[in-house]
Amino acid sequence: MANPLSPVPQAARAPRALLVAQLSNAIGDGAFYVTSALYFSEIVGLSAARIGIGLTLAWAVGSVAGVWLGHLADRRGPRSAAVLLALATATAVASFLLIRSFVPFLIAAAVYAAAQSGLAAARQALLAGLVEPSARTEVLSRLQSTLNAGLAVGAGLGGLALHAGTRTAYLSVFALDAAGFLICALVLRGLPSVAPAPVPAAGEPRLAVLRDRPYALLTLLNALMLLRLPLLSLALPLWIVQRTSAPGWIVSALFVLNTGAVMLFQVRAARKVTGLTEATRAVGLAGAVMLVSCAVFAVTDAELGPWTTVAVLALGAALQVVAEMRHSAGSWQIGFGLAPAGRIGQYQAFYGTGVPVARTLGPLLVTALLVTWGVPGWLLLGGIFLLTGAATKPAVRWAERSRAQARAEHGATELATAR
């Protein structure tokens, strides 16, 4: 009898459909990300502090809710859950059009964050059910490249809205993002169905991931490696403006370098990562390269002259994107490889909490280290990346041992029951 959780043979077109769904989301999200803060501050009239607090609380709620929604995707089937969560995200985005005060903003943002977190987990579970394990990392790398391309296009469209600066222009961006999630729901609905996970046996916890200490450690290590996100988007631009002689346009150029490199080379970087051994090696290398990148960025504190500083910044950014691509490939393989069959949704949702944690708490940490401490802060941050990458290998081995022990105990229990 076929395993209902094994990849569906007739799902050869699944990667292409997942790419289309990713692209539709990314274009809308790219426009939303570059315009939403200014919309809520200039059009709605919320203070910067309230926007920041609201988004932090919303993503905290979304991260917790995402684990439960990932569990729901496992139990009810990832395709139907993904479709419903895409529709919920579209509804949350559309509700922003009606926001006029802080409390409705906070509620809508929390629904948006929860639906986004749950949707990401459900799509990962859907991918696991439709794509062979050996091909998952490559498919994920293509999704990441598509994400970057869509975000770049969306950011360009958002820039047009910012240039117009009118309420109608901002609302058009929100409508575009909502439409993107509606398209995503339609595309995902056309994919083959994946059977729900079996009902947990009596005595087994529903949210087993919350008791999986090795996986929790790996989630924490992944969150630390993801401190590269606010490094590029916030800390480095502030460093360039406040501590170097480089022209301001280099901030945009480095962003283009990063997104362009990921679009062109992420798939190639991920092809050799086919198992946990290669994954831990990739993450360890990423940590070492991030240390070198941070050291290169620190050099720009010296008075090198504008163009020499630009060249050094470009070198640091190139090293950073190499580390990013290696870490991404290794992280995907670890997150999937250690998630038990039938619990992909809840495990991926928990593992994915590293992103909102890095985006909400990371800016405070990296700006304190870099803008306040300067060169020592760069070297300390690089050391964190190095140690985190190195710690991933023993953490993965711990997770593998715990799973082997659990299988042995389960086998012994079944044997005793049979007797």
Largest sheet: none
Secondary-structure element string: HHHHHHHHHHHHHHH
Under the CATH scheme, the architecture of the largest domain is: Up-down Bundle
Tell me the number of strands.
0
User: For this structure, what is the CATH class of the largest domain?
Assistant: Mainly Alpha
- Provide the CATH topology of the largest domain: Growth Hormone, Chain: A
Rg from C-alpha positions? Answer: 22 Å
Structural domain tally? 2
> What percentage of the residues does DSSP assign to strands (E)?
under 5%
Shape: globular
Derived structural class: mainly alpha
Discrete helix count: 15
Uncertain residue ranges: 1-11
Q: Tell me, rounded to a whole number, the average pLDDT.
A: 87
Terminal Cα span: 25 Å
In helices, the fraction of residues equals over 70%
Short structural summary:
With 419 residues, this protein is mostly helical.
Provide a descriptive summary of the structure in words:
The chain has two domains: 14-189, MFS general substrate transporter like domains (Growth Hormone, Chain: A), CATH 1.20.1250; 208-409, Growth Hormone, Chain: A. The chain is 81% helix and 0% strand. The protein has 419 residues and is mainly α. The relative contact order is 0.14. It has helices spanning 14-44, 48-76, 78-95, 102-130, 133-164, 167-189, 213-225, 228-243, 250-270, 276-299, 306-337, 344-351, 354-360, 362-373, 375-418. Helix 2 runs parallel beside helix 4 (102-130) and helix 14 runs antiparallel to helix 15. The chain is globular and about 65 Å long. The model is unreliable at 1-11 (pLDDT under 50). The chain contains 15 helices and no strands.
